[in-house]
Specification:
alpha/beta, Metallo-beta-lactamase, Chain A, six-stranded mixed sheet, 4 helices, 12 strands, globular, Metallo-B-lactamas, metal-binding, transit peptide, oxidoreductase, Mito_Persulfide_Diox
Length: about 180
């Protein structure tokens, strides 16, 4: 039964991410830190969010936002970690009007500090914030308001999870 649910969810995601649907999704990769960055945009309002931007690829991400005709409202971070160097600050200077966002529990600086249950709105969509500590104390997962997508940063990976051996990580809490 669970396998069928996953297959249905996968089909629904692929159907929703085509060019004729309201949400735009782009996955980008930064090989040095092995970080995935996600651009989500509302095709109607052209408002967008960028999840887990990396410092080294912020210029690439800003260029893509401009090429797609989007207005980046927020650069949001799932967590703050030694191997997770955010590009939020640089994006704020490259794309005026963009605000940096991170969990209050992360201890990191940002324009907006969020907590479990908060929502980040862009166009017709919102990212719901879910606390997912363990990788770091302030780690969060962002769930699209229609529940078709979840962005976990390093907390939950395919066939594994993020490391818990430094910066207040806790395997018991993560699991």
């Amino acid at each position: 039964m669970a396998g069928a649910t996953l297959r249905v969810a996968g089909r629904r995601l692929s159907q929703r991410s085509g060019s004729g649907v309201p949400i735009l999704l782009r996955q980008m990769f930064e090989p040095k830190s092995c970080t995935y960055t996600y651009l989500l945009g509302d095709r109607e309002s052209h408002e967008a969010v960028l999840i887990d931007p990396v410092l080294e690829t912020a210029p690439r991400d800003a260029q893509l936002v401009k090429e797609l005709g989007l207005r980046l409202l927020y650069a949001v971070n799932t967590h703050c970690h030694a191997d997770h160097i955010t590009g939020s600050g640089l994006l704020r200077s490259l794309l005026p009007g963009c605000q940096s966002v991170i969990s209050r529990l992360s201890g990191a600086q940002a324009d907006l500090h969020i907590e479990d249950g908060d929502s980040i709105h862009f166009g017709r969509f919102a990212l719901e914030t879910r606390a997912s500590p363990g990788h770091t104390p302030g780690c969060v997962t962002f769930v699209l308001n229609d529940h078709s997508m979840a962005f976990t940063g390093d907390a939950l990976l395919i066939r594994g999870c993020g490391r818990t051996d430094f910066q207040q990580g806790c395997a018991k809490t993560l699991y």
